[in-house]
Amino acid sequence: MPDRLDLDLSAPPAVPEAAIAAALDLLRGGWLHRYGETLGNSSDAALLEAEFAALTGARFCVGVNSCGSAMFLALLGSGVRPGDRVLTNGFTLSPVPGAIAHAGAEPVIVEITPDLVIDLDDLARQARASGARHLLLSHMRGHMVDMPALMRLCDELGVTVIEDCAHSMGASWAGRPAGRFGRAGCFSLQSYKHVNAGEGGLIVTDDEDLAARAVLASGSYMLFAQHRARPAEAAFARWKDTTPNFSLRLSNLAAALARPQLPLLAERARIWRDRYARLKAALSRVPGLRLPHRPVAEEHVPSSIQFLLPDLDAARFPRFLAACRTRGVYLKWFGAEQAEGYTSAPRHWRFMRDAATPPRTAAVLGQLCDMRIPLSLPAEACGDITAIVASELQAAQG
Ligand SMILES: Cc1ncc(COP(=O)(O)O)c(C=O)c1O
């Protein structure tokens, strides 16, 4: 076993040469903004939207500047109004309740199960108690709940689903792509996601009013006809004079960087699944470590791995994490007192009226470790990572 892992687990996917060449071409011409009075509908942004719509089988796709903006605009376009309550699962990241707050609405946190997905019984309870009409469902770290069961329940409850697919680009449930169950799906192009454009977001939907409202609110001025994967003029006519411009546009530069990465998604998925399977096989043999169960129907693209340490006292976690980090294995912990890096829990989101982690979710997050799987992770390193985790866990427990 090596003393130290000699690679950076936080490294983003490298930008391929074809994307660099496309970006340079764009820079030389100067057409970085996606619209122009004399431009047609062949900007990189418009082409990326059309390509992503085709990839996911959606009628419409709207590019914006982040997944946070995508979720905000999807909620807005779905009719969420200031003061409304919006359900969301307690295992997610702060931009998710942040998007609800951006729409002037109030998050209602739903419990998760020990397998890290939304608890359907609690969802039914909280929907009835709160009167919420929307669920912003986060497929956090790519974990998908039984989607047909969730959709049946939400139909019964009269709850509209918007999917946060920041961690599930290319994933599916029984062959149906993530983002294609709810009224809209929201994706991220931020560097640590499946496609690295630095920043960016994509909304997919079959709903023409939601799509038209998202295009207009994203800041299309009156140049919405320069979108390709867009609804017909009539939908814009219904909304164009009453929709504010929030200037959350996707830049052509981000789109030019993203487009050549879409055809690479299948190969990236193969690598991530292989590394996840190796880590899972090795970690599942470590005493005192539990991996969440993942159903066969969940075809995930895991750019990270999560595990629970049920026997490790909360007081011993910091020492365990510090020891792993010293040896190059950078783990995150959802039970930390303070929000750290990209990791936080509902009790840290004090912009909410009731900033508390519900009890069963708190119990799960208190044991939950999280590790990024960089695309560049060599297969052989999976055993070294596991050996370091196992030995430091034993030391922390001793
Ligand atoms: C689960 C989840 N949802 C949404 C987002 C927001 O994505 P973006 O950074 O593109 O706004 C993130 C960002 O890391 C995330 O982790």
Structure explained in plain terms:
With 398 residues, the protein is an alpha/beta fold. The chain has two domains: 17-263, Type I PLP-dependent aspartate aminotransferase-like (Major domain) (Aspartate Aminotransferase, domain 2, 3-Layer(aba) Sandwich); 264-397, Aspartate Aminotransferase, domain 1 (Alpha-Beta Complex), CATH 3.90.1150.10. 37% of the residues lie in helices and 13% in strands. It is built from 13 helices and 13 strands. The strands form three sheets. The protein has a seven-stranded mixed β-sheet with strand order 1-9-8-5-4-2-3, with helices on both faces. Strands 7-6-10 form a three-stranded antiparallel β-sheet, with no helix packed on it. α3 crosses α4, α5 packs parallel to α6 (147-157) and α11 (317-326) packs antiparallel against α13. It starts with 16 loop residues before the first helix and ends with a helix. The model has no long low-confidence stretch (mean pLDDT 97). The site of pyridoxal-5'-phosphate has 16 residues, from α3 and α4.
Summarize the structure.
With 398 residues, the protein is of the alpha/beta class. Helices cover 37% and strands 13% of the residues. The structure holds pyridoxal-5'-phosphate.
Helix and strand arrangement:
Blueprint: H1 17-29, H2 44-56, E1 60-64, H3 67-77, E2 85-89, H4 95-102, E3 106-110, H5 120-130, E4 134-138, H6 147-157, E5 160-164, E6 172-173, E7 176-177, E8 184-188, E9 201-205, H7 208-219, H8 233-239, H9 252-258, H10 265-283, E10 298-299, E11 304-308, H11 317-326, E12 332-333, H12 359-365, E13 368-372, H13 381-397
Parallel strand pairs: 2-3, 2-4, 4-5, 5-8
Antiparallel strand pairs: 1-9, 6-7, 6-10, 8-9, 11-13, 12-13
The structure holds pyridoxal-5'-phosphate.
Pyridoxal-5'-phosphate binds next to helix 3 and helix 4.
